[in-house]
Amino acid sequence: MKVAIVHYWFVGMRGGEKVVEALCRMYPQADIFTHVVDRDRLSRTLQAHDVRTTFIGRLPGAVRHYKKYLPLMPLALEQLDLRGYDLVISSESGPAKGVLTRADTAHVCYCHSPMRYLWDFYQDYLHEGGGFMRGMMRPWFHYLRMWDAVSAMRVDRYVANSRTVAARIRKHWRRDAVVVTPPVEIDAFAPAGVTPTRPAEGAPYLCLGQLVGYKRVDLAVRACTATGRPLVVAGDGEMRRALEAVAGPTVRFAGRLDDAAMCTIYAQSRALLFPGEEDFGMVPVEAMASGRPVIAYGRGGALETVVDGETGLFFGAQDTDALVAALDRFEREEHRFDPARIAAHARNFGEARFRMEFGAVIDEALRDLAEPGTRQAADR
Does the N-terminal or the C-terminal CB of the chain have fewer CB atoms within 10 Å? Predict the structure, then answer.
């Protein structure tokens, strides 16, 4: 079977790219299509595949400024020639699902979220842009929303990474989706046979991820600065300087980490602070796989992975006072959190489960396309 995987862009190895890695292990023969690729940032698994770009990848400065070419991406997707493929899997969060396929090609979309800058976060992006950018965004995004809604009908089956995203798919595209949570490399954080232990006395809290506005890392920095709690901020991004400017002496910035250093920093932390609202959020699952509780904002994907009072705690408002109150509660109840039990819960989100559940959706999509031909042959 000829398989194509379409992903929006490869400029780092974040959650969406980890899902594509798992898909490549399921379909080692697959060819990969994308708009832009930074080959130095690809994992070994992805480097082993044929990765082809749309014409966006040949435009000036595409690797760094790919988002500026967003209005051209629908056109670029429709230029891809996928006639030779029996199965197309699109990985959607940026423009990826709008490819054109044969009528007898199964197209299954694994959706991390409908494009947030077109729908849920449109007004936020509009507010943050300058006057010229706002003037350009209004007509561009109007056109992109129309194309996004129309191209949603080209997909045979939708798979959402969480119930939160399935609800967005129903709202914006009027399509139903099966929920299959993404695969997390559990064994990298909790090797088989190794029982996680409690953190050392005085261990810091951890906030890990891309340092951008909607992650709300500022809440963790302000809460720990105000109360003198030790905090390690791991990751990099456009908000780093602003965060460093408000951080007190108990907050340390570790920068971007490789996989080995990330495993170590999880294991050495007291708990993960997760103050943003995510579609799913692999970071809390990685922390739990390391036996560490998660103190999370109680909305979005965290509600589907963290068990309040058992593997972590929720706070109800995205403000510093609410997070400080959650930290106080956690420290009163910390003795109740068992690292081994937390790690065992995280195993519900491993790759074996993803392969089984996503594979079942693929089988159903292929079977539905094959049945009309089977019935016609029987009639003859």
Answer: C
